[in-house]
Amino acid sequence: MTRVFVTGVRLQLLQLMRSGFDISAMLVWPIIFASIAFYLLDAKESPRLLFAASLGTAVMMMWAQVVVGAGGALDNQRVFGTLELLVGAPVPLVTLIAPIMIASGAFGVYGLVVTIVWGRLLFGIPITIVHPLAFAVSIPACIVAIGLLGLITAATFVLYRSAFALGVAMQYPVFIATGLLVPLSVLPAWVGPVSWLLAPTWGFRAIKAAALGGSPWPAIGMCAVVSVAYLAIALVCLAFFERLARSRASLRLA
After folding, report:
1. Assuming Cys at both sites, which of 49, 51, 81, 115 could form a disulfide with 43, CB separation 3.0 to 4.6 Å?
2. What is the pLDDT of residues 117-172, one digit of tens each?
3. In angstroms, rounded to a whole number, what is the distance separating the alpha carbons of residues 228 and 231?
């Protein structure tokens, strides 16, 4: 199964890197999101705040790529007629769909590079990493956590005939609930506990603390904790929705 997983990640990354839609989206949207954040903050005297905004933009792009890109990937497999082959393969379905999610999250590193370079060239933001080792660990921890959260939604993607549309609809609720779009302090109090259940919250906190100073290891540990929880939930959801999709014969396009 390990070989299947590694091969799946590699193939999905190759497909993403050859997709004009995904490449252009990963180059354009981080610049748009980062520029809007920089001008809204208007924090010319606080480069740390602008750097934090660029890191938040990168995490947003990771989540967007997972839910939209992975949803589009599954839609494409429906069109190509290969989704039935994936579900019918003699290996657990999770080892075939998880690589799509993890690779999509890893592809979001493009967004991290683009936002940092854009902020440096246009706004002169100094790029200083306080804890380089923790920063290097926090990025894959964030990718895995976000990818496994996407794996839960992928269970619905298997059942739902328009996975791409569902992925688009799931972007902004998570952006808002995790404090990436607006501060949690201006939202109702009940949103705070909800954000603790979502991977982008801990991924952003880990990357931000590693880059700007602080204690990133607790947030990295929480990324690991929620990753394990997501995997357990995803296994149950995938098994349930796979049986449901088989019984409804809904794997093909209507």
Report:
1. 49
2. 887 887 777 788 889 999 999 999 999 999 888 888 877 766 666 667 777 788 88
3. 5
pTM: predicted TM-score of the whole model, two decimal places: 0.85
Neighbours of 87 (CB within 10 A): 17
Task: For tokens 């809007």, name the residue.
Answer: 36
CB-CB contact of 73 with 105 (8 Å)? no
In what helix (H) or strand (E) does residue 207 lie, and over which residues does it extend? helix 199-212
End-to-end CA distance of the chain: 32
State the virtual CA torsion across 137, 138, 143, 144 in degrees, nearest 10. 70
- How many CB atoms lie under 10 A from the CB of residue 80? 9
Three-class SS state of 18 = coil
Ordered alpha helix ranges (H), the chain: 2-17, 20-41, 47-64, 70-80, 83-88, 94-107, 109-123, 132-159, 163-169, 171-177, 191-195, 199-212, 217-248
42, 80 Cβ separation under 8 angstroms:
no
5-42 core/surface letters (b: 16 or more CB in 10 A; e: else): beebbeebbebbeebeebeebbeebbbebbbebbeeee
pLDDT averaged over the chain? Answer: 81
Give the C-alpha separation, 145 to 213, whole Å.
22
- Amino acid at the residue 98: A
